[in-house]
Design brief:
Blueprint lengths: L2 E5 L4 E5 H19 L14 E3 L4 E5 L16 E7 L4 E9 L5 E3 L11 E7 L2 E7 L6 E8 L3 H12 L4 E4 L6 E4 L4 E3 L6 E9 L3 E8 L4 E6 L3 E8 L11 E2 L6 E7 L20 H8 L3 H14 L9 H6 L17 H21 L6 H11 L9 E7 L8 E8 L4 E10 L5 E6 L4 E4 H9 L1
Antiparallel strand pairs: 1-2, 3-4, 3-10, 4-5, 5-6, 6-7, 7-8, 8-9, 9-10, 11-12, 11-19, 12-13, 13-14, 14-15, 15-16, 16-17, 17-18, 17-19, 20-21, 21-22, 22-23, 23-24
Length: about 450
């Protein structure tokens, strides 16, 4: 008689597979294939598979993690996938497991609706959970199985999608390359190699700020042409070094990408969109800044590789690419499964970017300065947002604004602004390093130096 062992908060429950029949065998196989099983001889979670949406991790539970009085679900009717990011917890979904092994979302949340389908797929050398709408079949999300630590995954994805390839500075023939194994760069500051570490904001979460062993620190962001390195520093009053801000006294470094594709890879700026499934967090990284323009190129580049004939202005961009050869007005039948899912995921991220750039605020003053700041050229990057942290007073007659990126688990500050409304409306830049105000014109002139 074959037995399956589940460890719950209440007890270890042994179920006879023979007694449950073929339906339980289907459930058993689903659980073993997708979620792993428990190893009772060592750590009880050693053999559980972890999942990620690119920003948070999710661990399977076989009883409700929020209700310690719940009875164990011996037949595995619901799998609870709960976890968090490196900064906070409380993320999770409930997955209903049917007798035939098929999975659906068990309850509504902000991402999924009850009944949405969950499919386990192995594509290439990666294993995925693909979430789709119960009614339309449209892809809603992609998660990946991963081993190791979320911290390491963040860094690995940053190398894969942002620091990949070869670069050089404008007017220079020096080739610049980043090495993921060594966490180093060659050719950026000299012909030799310079090592770096990723800055951990608030002590636990790695952010895309590279701290070089020569003392410099730069925020790295992918651009359409290559890479933008923004000099960073600690505010004078930040004795604990928990966050960094832009160092306005130093110029930005612009690197041009010399190549993107390894031999055998598809042509274009975003070849990975045709090669591997991507989570929305990976798509954000891969798109670079400004995301709203680059995401459209990424998505249409997939169609262009098959010779799609564009009848919009984007066709002129692809007409300038040596590899592009227009052939047909319908190439959907040629798309691979990876490409079809990635197109849906890119569209999803495009909608998020559009929503983030449109602000509906009842207060007319707040609405005005919010939309004005978000329209600045300096704010045209993915997840751009602002936070009002101070209102006018007798000693400080202005609104104090933090502007930056609204990430899933934190707000990353790039700039500070003071907004005056009396006697005239004006937006000024506050330089936290030098503790001074600058007009927008002064600020931009200093950035050009």
């Amino acid at each position: 008689m074959k037995k399956i062992v589940f460890l719950t908060a209440a007890a270890v429950i042994m179920i006879s597979a023979a007694a449950q029949g073929q339906n339980l065998a289907a459930k058993e196989q689903t659980i073993l294939n997708i979620f792993g099983r428990l190893n009772l001889e060592t750590d009880p979670y050693d053999n559980l598979y972890y999942w990620t949406d690119g920003e948070a991790f999710y661990r399977p539970f076989f009883t409700d993690p929020h209700n310690f009085d719940a009875k164990p679900l011996a037949t595995g009717n619901i799998i609870y996938l709960y976890g968090g990011s490196l900064h906070e917890g409380g993320f999770g979904i409930d997955v209903q497991l049917a007798s035939d092994g098929k999975m659906t979302i068990a309850r509504d949340d902000y991402r999924f609706s009850k009944g949405d389908r969950v499919v386990h797929r192995i594509i290439g050398n990666e294993t995925h959970l693909i979430f789709s709408d119960a009614r339309t079949g449209a892809v809603k999300d992609v998660w990946k199985k991963f081993d190791g630590k979320l911290h390491d995954l963040y860094i690995a994805n940053f190398f894969k999608y942002v620091l990949t390839g070869k670069f050089n500075r404008e007017g220079s023939s020096q080739t610049i390359t980043f090495n993921a194994q060594k966490s180093s760069v060659t050719g950026l500051f000299s012909a030799g190699e310079t090592s770096f570490t990723f800055f951990k904001e608030y002590g636990d979460t790695p952010v895309p700020i590279l701290r070089f062993n020569n003392g410099g620190a730069y925020r790295a962001a992918r651009s359409f042409e290559g890479l933008i390195l923004t000099p960073m520093t600690f505010p004078e009053d930040d004795d604990d070094e928990v966050c960094m801000v832009q160092d306005e006294s130093k110029p930005l470094i612009f690197l041009k990408r010399l190549d993107e594709s390894a031999p055998g890879m598809p042509p274009g700026v975003y070849p990975l969109a045709s090669v591997r499934l991507m989570t929305d967090a990976e798509i954000y990284l891969y798109a670079g800044d400004p995301a709203n323009a680059n995401l459209r190129i990424m998505r249409n580049e997939i169609f262009a590789r098959y010779g799609y004939q564009f009848n919009t202005e984007i066709g002129s961009y692809f007409a300038d690419q040596e590899w592009y050869s227009p052939q047909s007005s319908d190439v959907t039948g040629k798309l691979t499964e990876i490409e079809r899912i990635n197109i849906a995921m890119i569209l999803k991220v495009e909608e998020k970017v559009k929503l983030a750039s449109y602000v509906e605020i009842s207060d007319p003053v707040e609405r005005q300065y919010t939309n004005d700041i978000l329209a600045f050229p300096e704010m045209q990057f993915s997840r751009a947002a602002i936070m009002t942290i101070g209102v006018p007073s007798d000693t400080e007659p202005y609104y104090t604004i933090k502007a930056g990126s609204n990430m899933e688990d934190r707000f990353v500050t790039n700039y500070w602004f003071h907004v005056y409304v009396d006697p005239v409306y004006a937006i000024k830049v506050y330089d936290v390093v030098s503790d001074r105000e600058l007009s927008l014109e002064e600020w931009r002139k200093e950035k050009e130096k």
